[in-house]
Amino acid sequence: MTPEVPVRPGPRPANRNLTAAIWALLVAGLIAVIAAGVREIWISAERQDFQVLPVLGQISDFQLTERDGQTKTLADLRGEIWVADFFFSTCPGPCPILTSRMAEVAQAVRRTKGKVRIVSITVDPQTDTPERLRQYAEQYSAGKNWWFLTGSMKEIYRLAREGMKLAVEENPPESIAQAGKMLHSTKVALVDGRGQVRAYYNGTDADLLARVLPDIGSLLREEEKKK
User: Which DSSP string corresponds to 65-126?
Assistant: First the structure.
């Protein structure tokens, strides 16, 4: 007679509450790591040997409307460093990623207390009214240091093409269904307090924040030295 082999108990079902707690700790840890990384990037930007960024262009005066209905001009940005991009709210392509990257920068520069501003300019003013831009800005928890501008197409074209040296144009009718109404550059421009373009970045790159913060630090130090 074959001796009976004792049956070992199988693994106990995972405690759902314990599993949820572990995942919560992992997520919290990841958020803490990201926050620490942003802090270290900013600190390194403040302590490094600052490089002198080249002057790549000069922006002339413009007149556009912010989402709160107020008129904004170049004079309103005098003395401020700003990071600018072009987008449109119905964009089916890169705009959501681009705006998410800008949101990261906007969050990181809040500690500058008004010395750095984010400026997003629509390339579809017919659709993107101030009211529409308010709704769009809310999706990204945009604060007061982040402007969303609209205005005449002529003014926007001039600012993009002549001031920022960035492409913008209407898509041909056969491309609208897939690519959206407008074709525009996804580059981001870093502008100093005198309206001079000092650097460009690919706005959809995952490392946009890590690349732009040291350069912002350089411009902040440059402004301090001129006082």
Answer: EETTS-EEEGGGGTT-EEEEEEE-TT-SSSHHHHHHHHHHHHHHGGGGTTSEEEEEEES-TT
Beta strands in the chain (DSSP E): 57-58, 63-66, 71-73, 81-87, 116-122, 146-150, 168-170, 182-184, 187-191, 196-202
Superfamily of domain 57-225: Glutaredoxin (3.40.30.10)
Distance, CA of 158 to CA of 163 (rounded, Å): 7
pLDDT digit string (tens) for 165-208?
998 888 777 777 777 777 789 999 999 999 999 999 999 999 99
Per residue in 120-151, pLDDT (tens digit) is 999 999 999 999 999 999 999 999 999 999 99
Helices and strands, number each (H, E), in the chain: 6, 10
Report yes or no: 119 and 86 within 8 Å, Cβ to Cβ.
no
Domain coordinates in residue numbering, the chain: 57-225
Helix axes 208-225, 16-47, angle to 10 degrees: 30
